[in-house]
């Protein structure tokens, strides 16, 4: 894919603009009503973050909603967009200026690099590998090599860029694995109905699937993989603009504070998301919502004693990933992690009063349903669904 594929792109998306990626890979925007584009104030105007999953009604983005509720973004003008479910949209839209920050998996980030998109990872959310493989009960495996000759279900064909390096790093001959695009959000239901042999999943989603009566067993990346997980990317050129860089530091500080708030009081962070999305609250409820967020906190926090702070990149882990995907041909040229990932914003992003955030979290008055939960008990059973 080249820059010539992107025609007529403009920066700045209203809340009423539906983001699309055509079958040919061309980014388009359709206004639901009124004028979809507006003049921008410096340095960004409304700063738009775009989801990789085609929806915002999930718990994955809890740091944003918790931070927004607590006022941690200050006077920054921020927006969240679900985007289309096409797995590569989160990088395409940032590349052409129709969004300002994306949240791709490392595999989709590698798609951007391979296709010449000048993007850089600035805040590594997934310190541990969030990805897993779901199996019907009694059919799971601890050895992924047994998936050779089998069929794996994906929600988007673009997710193969996630599964190929994960499988290869576990010694699987990926040429012997078949993939079927079973659609978003139906690929888990397809597995339950007897299609395929396994399905890609991730932390947080495990709890959400239970709420949909999708009860699987899992090979868990958080227990078995050294690969990195999803990260925040921006246009490389934005880091060279002092005003935009300063904005990014403040914006990421809001996310870091939201992450800290969620770590200190997971139930309060779930409530912040549930207030935003009542349907999600109804579908999950307090216990599964808290289970989901605890799974994700484990991924986002990682081994914090060895990190520079929330969002810092483990360059060795990233280099291992890039070496793996070069070996399997997912990228055609070697990539040096330091060229496409940076920790230059991590210090400023983590420059906040942790005591204040802790006080905010501790002082939050939980609703009755959340106050009644035994968080320690939920933590003790967080990985019960792992293949035994």
TrEMBL record:
<comment type="similarity">
    <text>Belongs to the NMT1/THI5 family.</text>
</comment>
<keyword id="KW-0479">Metal-binding</keyword>
<comment type="function">
    <text>Responsible for the formation of the pyrimidine heterocycle in the thiamine biosynthesis pathway. Catalyzes the formation of hydroxymethylpyrimidine phosphate (HMP-P) from histidine and pyridoxal phosphate (PLP). The protein uses PLP and the active site histidine to form HMP-P, generating an inactive enzyme. The enzyme can only undergo a single turnover, which suggests it is a suicide enzyme.</text>
</comment>
<keyword id="KW-0784">Thiamine biosynthesis</keyword>
<feature type="domain" description="SsuA/THI5-like">
    <location>
        <begin position="63"/>
        <end position="267"/>
    </location>
</feature>
<keyword id="KW-0808">Transferase</keyword>
<keyword id="KW-0663">Pyridoxal phosphate</keyword>
<dbReference type="Pfam" id="PF09084">
    <property type="entry name" value="NMT1"/>
</dbReference>
<keyword id="KW-0408">Iron</keyword>
<comment type="pathway">
    <text>Cofactor biosynthesis; thiamine diphosphate biosynthesis.</text>
</comment>
<protein>
    <recommendedName>
        <fullName>Thiamine pyrimidine synthase</fullName>
    </recommendedName>
</protein>
<dbReference type="InterPro" id="IPR006311">
    <property type="entry name" value="TAT_signal"/>
</dbReference>
<comment type="subunit">
    <text>Homodimer.</text>
</comment>
<dbReference type="InterPro" id="IPR027939">
    <property type="entry name" value="NMT1/THI5"/>
</dbReference>
<dbReference type="InterPro" id="IPR015168">
    <property type="entry name" value="SsuA/THI5"/>
</dbReference>
């Amino acid at each position: 894919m080249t820059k010539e594929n992107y025609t007529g792109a403009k920066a700045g998306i209203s809340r009423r603009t539906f983001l699309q990626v055509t079958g040919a890979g061309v980014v388009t925007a359709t206004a639901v009503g009124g004028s979809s584009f507006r003049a921008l104030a410096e340095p960004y105007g409304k700063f738009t973050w775009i989801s990789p999953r085609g929806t915002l009604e999930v718990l994955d983005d809890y740091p944003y909603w918790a931070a927004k509720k607590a006022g941690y973004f200050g006077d920054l003008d921020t927006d969240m967009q679900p985007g289309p479910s096409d797995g590569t949209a989160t990088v395409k839209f940032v590349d052409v200026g129709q969004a300002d920050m994306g949240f791709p998996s490392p595999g989709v980030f590698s798609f951007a690099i391979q296709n010449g998109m000048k993007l850089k990872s600035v805040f590594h959310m997934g310190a541990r590998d969030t990805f897993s493989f779901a199996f019907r009960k009694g059919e799971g495996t601890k050895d992924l090599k047994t998936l050779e000759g089998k069929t794996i279900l994906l929600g988007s064909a673009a997710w193969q860029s996630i599964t190929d390096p994960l499988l290869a790093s576990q010694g699987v001959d990926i040429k012997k694995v078949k993939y079927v695009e079973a659609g978003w959000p139906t690929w888990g239901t397809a597995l339950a109905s007897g299609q395929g042999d396994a399905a890609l999943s991730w932390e947080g989603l495990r709890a959400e699937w239970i709420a949909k009566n999708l009860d699987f067993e899992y090979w868990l990346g958080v227990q078995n993989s050294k690969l990195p997980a999803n990260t925040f990317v921006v246009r490389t050129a934005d880091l060279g603009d002092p005003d935009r860089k300063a904005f990014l530091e403040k914006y990421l500080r809001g996310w870091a504070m939201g992450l800290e708030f969620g770590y200190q009081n997971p139930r309060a962070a779930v409530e912040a998301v549930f207030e935003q999305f009542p349907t999600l609250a109804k579908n999950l409820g307090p216990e599964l919502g808290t289970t989901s967020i605890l799974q994700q906190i484990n991924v986002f926090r990682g081994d914090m004693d060895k990190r520079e702070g929330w969002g810092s990149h483990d360059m060795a882990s990233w280099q291992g990933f890039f070496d793996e995907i070069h070996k399997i041909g997912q990228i055609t040229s070697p990539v040096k992690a330091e060229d496409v990932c940076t920790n230059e914003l991590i210090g400023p992003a983590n420059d906040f009063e942790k005591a204040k955030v802790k006080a905010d979290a501790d002082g939050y008055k939980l609703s009755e349903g959340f106050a009644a939960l035994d968080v320690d008990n939920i933590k003790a059973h967080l990985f019960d669904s792992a293949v035994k």
